[in-house]
Amino acid sequence: MNSVNVNYAIILAAVLFATGLVGVMVRRNLVFILMSLEIMLSAAAVALVAVASKWHQPDGQVVVIFILVTAAAEVAVGLSLVLRIYHEWKSVDVDEVSTMEG
Amino acid sequence: MEVLLWPIVLAPFAGALVLAVFGAYMPKKAAGAVGCVTAGASWVMAMVVLGSFLSEGSYAPADSKLYEWIAVSSLRVPMSLHMDTLSVIMISVITFVAFLIHLYSAQCMFEEDGYSRFFAYMNLFVGSMLTLVLANNLLLLYLGWEGVGLCSYLLIGFWYKDSDNGRAAQKAFVVTRIGDTAMAVGLFLLFVNFRTFTISELSAMAPALWTAGSAVATATAFLIIGGAIGKSAQVPLHTWLPDAMAGPTPVSALIHAATMVTAGVYLIARLDFLFMIAPAAQLAVAVIGAVTLVYAGFSALTQSDIKRVLAYSTISQIGYMFLALGVGAWSAAIFHFMTHAFFKALLFLSAGIVIHALGHDERNMFRMGGLARRLPVAYWTFLAGAASLSALPLVTAGFYSKDTILYAAWASKSGGIALWVGGIVGALLTSAYAFRMVFLTFLGEQKTEPSGHAGGLEKLAVTVLAFLSIVAGFVGIPAVLGGFNPFEGYMSHIFAPFALSEARLHILSEAVLMAISSLVSLVGIYFAYVYFTRPALSEDVERSPVLRAMHSFLLAGWGFDWLYDRTIVRPFEAIAFGNRSDFMDTFYKGLAAAAGWISRGLSLTQTGRLRDYATGVVIGAVILGAILLVRLQWF
Question: Is B605 an 8 Å CB contact of chain A?
C-alpha cells in the first residue's frame, strides 16, 4: 500500500475544516449549518487518520470511529432541534431566531 | 477592707440597671426608692470605709482588684480600685452629696414624666463618678470620666421635648469632648513612655525618667490640663456650663456644681507628680484658674437668671481650686472642693425650691423678691450657702477653704502677687454677686406669689447641707487662728506642702492676708447692699451707654459664645453645607457610571444571532492560535 504524503492529507483536512467553518459563519439555513459542522468533524477525522498512519499508531484510527458515532448522535439531536425550531418559527433561518439579543 | 470598696461603686450601677430594665413597670415611689436606697447604701459603705481608714491610722494606700480588664502583650489594665487619703475623701463627699440630692429629687421631680429614667441616669452618674475617683489606673479613670460626661449629656437634655435643651446637652458634650481628646493623647503619651496606666507606678517612674521641665513632661501635662479644663469648665472651654443649666435643678446641683465639674481638679491633684516635674504646666494651671475666677465673677455679677449666676459662680469657684493646684497647694484645692460641694449644692437646691414654688420654671431674679417670709427654709439655707460662698469671715466653711487658697497664692514659692490680686478681686466679686442674689430673690417687695411649698425631703436635704456649709470648715482652721487643722494633716500623707516664699511673707504676714480677704468679702456684701437699696444707681447704669454696653458684654459671658460661633461653629457648618454631597462620593459614583457604560457597550455584542457568536469564537480561536504560534516560535 502506497503511503500518501501526509502533508497532502493535512492540507486536505485544513481545507475541509475551513470550508465547514465558513459555512457555519455565513449560512443562514440551519440544515446547512449542521452539514457544515459535519464537514468540520470529517476534517478532524481525516487529519487523525493521516497522522495515525504516518506514526504507525492505530489509536488515531480508533478515535475516528468515536468521531463518527458522535457525529451521528449530534445529527440526530441537531435535526430534532431544527424540527422544533421550524414548528415554532415556521422557518429554519437562524437570524430569525435571535430573541436572546442583549 | 478590700471587699468594701467594690460595693460602693457597684451599688449605684445596680440601681441604674434595675431602673433601666424594670423602671417602666415600677410605680413612681418604688423607682425613687431604688434610686435613693442604692445611693444611700453607697454612702453608708463609703462612711464605713472612711471610718476604718481613719481609725486604722496608717493611711496606707491599698488596691482592690476585681479582675484583669485588658491583657494584650505588654498592656495590662486591671479593674482595680485604689484607696488612699485623696480618693477616700472624694468618695465620702460625692456619695454624701449624691445621697442628699437623690432624696431631694425624689420629692422635687415627683410630678415629672420620666421619673424612673431620671433616677436611672442619676445612679449611673454616681457609679461613673465613683469609678473615676477610685480608679487605680488612668484607663479606668477615663472610663469613669466619659461615663460622667455621658450622664451629664443625658441629664442636661432630660426634658428632651424642648429642642433648646437638646442643643445645650450637645454643646456640653462636644465642648468637653475637645478637652477629652487632648487628655486621651496625654494618656497615650504616658503609656508610650512608661508602658503602664497604673497611677502609682507612673508616679514612681515619671520623676525618675523625666527630667524636670523636659519637653515631653510639659507637653503631657498640658494635654492633661486640656482634659481638666474641658470637664471643669475653665476658660477657654467653659462655655458649656452656663447652658447646662437647662437640665433639672438637682442635676445642676449634683453634676454641674458639686461633683462632675470638679473631676478636672481631682485629675490634676491625682497626677500631682506630673505637674511637679512640669513647672510651666503648673503655672498655666494657676493662671487659668486666676483668669477664670475673675472672668466668671464679672459675668455672674450681671446675670438675671438665678441658675446662670450659680453656674458662673461654679466656674469661678473651680477657678479657685485650679489656682490652688497651680501654686502647689494640693490640699487647699481638695478642701475647697469639699466645702464648695456642700455650699454650691445647697445654693442650687434652695434655688430649686424657689423656682419650684414660683412655678412656670421662673428663674428670673427680677421677678422674684420678698420671698424670705414666704419660703423661710429656702431663705435661711440660701443665706447660709451665700455666706459660705462669699467667705463670710470666721463663721462659714467657705471662708476657711478660700482663705487657705488665697494664703497659698501669696505665700507659695510658685505663687505670686498677680495671682493673689486676681484671687482677691474674685473674692470681692463673689460676695457681691452672692448677696445680689440673696437681696433680689428674698428681700425687697414681693413680685410673684409663690404657689408651692418645699416638701419634707427637700427641707431635710437643704438643712443638712446648710449645716455643713457652716461647720465643714472647722476641720481646716489656719495656724493664725489656733491651727486646728486635721484636714491638712490628713492630706499631708500624700501631698507635700508647698514651699514658702519668705520674701513675700515678710511684706504681708498670714494674719494681714486674712484680714484683707475678710475685709474684701464684707466690702463685696456692702456693695451688693448699696446697689440693691439705691435703685438710682442701676438707673445711672441704664443711662450711660458705656456701662450699658459693658453690662451686656458681661451678661453674654464676655462674648465667648459669639466668638466661638463666628470662628468655629459657623465656618464648620459652612464647610459641612458646601460638602453636603460628599466630594469623595463623586469618585465612587464615577466608578458606578463607568461600569454602566462598559456594560451597555458589551451588551451590543449580544446580538442573539448564532452566526455572530460563531464568528466571535473563530476570531478568538485564530488570535489565540496566532499567539501560540508566535510564542512557541514555530515561525
Answer: yes
